[in-house]
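Complex 232.
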Amino acid sequence: MSNHLPPRRPFRVRTWLLSVTGLVLVGSLMIWHTQVIELLDLDSSGDKQPVVAGAPNGEAPQPVKSQLTTPPPTPRPKPKKTPSPTPTKKSTNSRASETGGYSEEDINGLSSKLRTRLKKAISAARADGVRISITSARRSEAKQRRLLQEAIERYGSYEAATRWVLPPEQSAHVLGKAVDIGPQAAMTWLNKNGWRYGICRRYDNEPWHFEALTTPGKKCPPREAHSGATAD
Ligand SMILES: [Zn+2]
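Predicted structure with zinc ion bound:
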């Protein structure tokens, strides 16, 4: 009758013991597991997360440092400079840039000697009621080359053209050592009075063309027939 009860106690006890044993075993396993993890993952001191469990396929666990430190901000790609469209419009100062920043009509592009003398002559002419205008002072090589080409087409040959326009290598305008002036009254005045300032008309065929050919106050040298007269 009651002898079926006693076996139940031991059964309960066994069950309890089994449970306790199981708990102890599980606890031991967990401790062992933790120790194994610590042994295997020496660098992860302080990080008790079982990272091994997250790597079931033998993959290397994620570096712990990346979890401890905030990841560096992803560098934003630098915006690429979009190249500005190539200006197709030709600069209005292109002619000036060819002569070092001076336009052809600007006496500041001339040599200091001719510029200084010319300023004095211009002032003296103004005092006489004559206005001297600069039509061409310093020219770029490119401009001189264009002028020569145009002269060749107009006069029919290189030789005929160089009576009026010299090639860039021989042109005093390219060196800033010659000036063309106008109008006619200014040419006449400077041809008559230029020697006082060391400025002389050089060619018979170019009444507008002047250079600093003499010492101020001294007589000008004899004129040449044309520019091609001394050229080869
Ligand atoms: Zn000239």
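Residues 173, 178, 180, 206, 209 surround zinc ion (CB under 6 Å).
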